[in-house]
Design a protein that fits this description.
Layout: E1 3-8, E2 15-20, E3 23-28, H1 39-53, E4 60-65, H2 76-81, H3 85-100, E5 104-109, E6 112-114, H4 116-122, E7 126-130, E8 134-136, H5 149-157, H6 159-168, E9 171-173, H7 174-180, E10 185-187, H8 192-204, H9 208-218, H10 226-241, H11 244-263
Parallel strand pairs: 3-4, 4-5, 5-7, 6-8, 7-10
Antiparallel strand pairs: 1-2, 2-3, 8-9
Length: 280
């Protein structure tokens, strides 16, 4: 296994990237600001996602935040100074690139996950929440709206719950977020790192070609008719059938079957019943 470590931007910059074989970790690194998003963090995030996109061996990407929060959303100092429209455009570009990764992406959500932080989390395939996390989209209370979370969130949790969360600006705790499907796993806060690693380990066992093909079609589930998706599905299935992972799965099954046959007890054939005397 190759273990490399890289930082998007300067050493100790606003986003850290570590690639350890099939696992990549992207860490928002502004803990003193609760990993609030500004231009420098967005630059680092875009660079990190771009690096992972060029690493075909990566099968799982963990996206998390340093310190006690995932991300509190837009940096309020930046908001007060005036946010250019291009910032929102760049945020969306990074989210779409994250969604397009063939690797399985998992948001490790602890503490506050608000606004743009939640938008980043729902651009991931899965979300692991700490028992003390709070998730919400408070944009409407600030005279804004949460960008394309107005599209992604209904696809994830349904239109009714998405309406309530977006239009109220309220935040949810871990139990309610799990019930609504906003997060997929809840891990005790005191064991968050170990619990998140265990979830990542589960998905590291998924063959990369199968995960990438599944993600590609899942991403278009609400956009294209079945006929178009079938035409796209068949070449992907052909590639999976001819992949080394599929061959390894067949070989493993054959080995298990042979082992079961070898371990099975030998059954003796029952003796035939004694012949019955017949009267002539």
């Amino acid at each position: 296994m190759i273990d490399t470590e890289a930082t998007a931007g300067a050493a100790g910059g606003p986003v850290l990237l570590r690639i350890d074989g099939p696992l990549a970790r992207i860490t928002l690194n502004r803990p003193q600001k609760l990993n609030a998003m500004d231009g420098a963090l967005l630059d680092g995030l875009e660079a990190a996602v771009g690096t992972v996109a060029q690493a075909p061996a990566v099968r799982v990407v963990l996206v998390g935040g340093a310190g006690r929060a995932f991300s509190a959303g837009l940096d309020l100092d930046m908001r007060a100074a005036g946010v250019p429209l291009s910032f929102f455009e760049r945020q969306e570009r990074v989210r779409r690139r994250l969604e397009a990764l063939p690797a399985i992406t998992i948001a490790a959500v602890q503490g506050h996950c608000l606004g743009g932080g939640l938008q980043l989390a729902i651009a991931c395939d899965l979300r692991v929440g700490s028992s003390d996390c709070r998730l919400g989209l408070p944009a409407v209370m600030e005279g804004l709206f949460p960008g394309l979370a107005t599209v992604r969130l209904p696809r994830l949790i349904g239109l009714g719950p998405a309406r309530r969360l977006i239009l109220s600006g309220e935040s949810l705790g871990a139990p309610e977020a799990l019930r609504q499907g906003l997060i997929d796993y809840v891990v005790p806060a005191e064991r968050f790192a170990a619990g998140t690693a265990a979830v990542a380990e589960t998905f590291l066992r998924v063959p990369g070609a199968a995960a990438g093909a599944s993600k590609r079609l899942l991403g278009r589930a609400f956009e294209a008719p079945l006929e178009a998706l079938e035409a796209e599905m068949l070449p992907l299935m052909r590639d999976c059938l001819s992949s080394p992972d599929a061959a390894a799965a067949v070989a493993a099954w054959q080995q298990r079957r042979a082992a079961r046959r070898q371990d099975a007890p030998v059954r003796e054939r029952p003796s035939p019943p004694p012949a019955q005397a017949t009267r002539g």
